[in-house]
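This week, study the protein below.
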Amino acid sequence: MLRWISGIGAAVLLFPVVVMMWVLVSGSIEDGKSRREFRQKKALHTFILKQPETVAGIALSTNDTVYYQTDFDMNYRNQAQLMDVDSVHLTKPTYFFNLQVKDYIGVVINDPDTWNVTLTHDQLVFGWPCTGKAVIAADSTFVSGTLAKDHVAWGHQLPKGAKVTYKKEYEQLNIILPDSEFITIDLKTK
């Protein structure tokens, strides 16, 4: 009888562990299914160009890979707008918003009106002298980038190498200086 009671006690103690294991295993299975479904959907929304083509206003080259948004109807691929494109892997430099870019153009996660680009060379990004990677908005405004040379903005001298982020909705500049010092400039008080 004592063994039977201790067996029930052990089962009671093990029950939460068994439930937790079940939750973890079933969650892993669901995550795996979701990832597989996403990969399949992504593959259906991927197009590798067989010849030069203009897609959503971007002049692309042969073998460039265009990834469309997964909710885009691929039957209308020839009518795609910029908002229908998730990203593009470039085989050659091209122009995007009058900027010469290379390698990759892609939507910023959680902000479909903002794009990551890699610049082919130091150039002005909507008035900001930038180098390397930059982020631009669909309304042709600068979002962020690394300064290619010293730059004066709203009366502040910003040094070459500073990483600048312009928060339009807050009228604010966030700057990480080359020595890793962080500065915020409130443009409303200017």
Remarks:
- Helices lie at 2-44.
- Residues 26 and 32 are 10 Å apart (CA to CA).
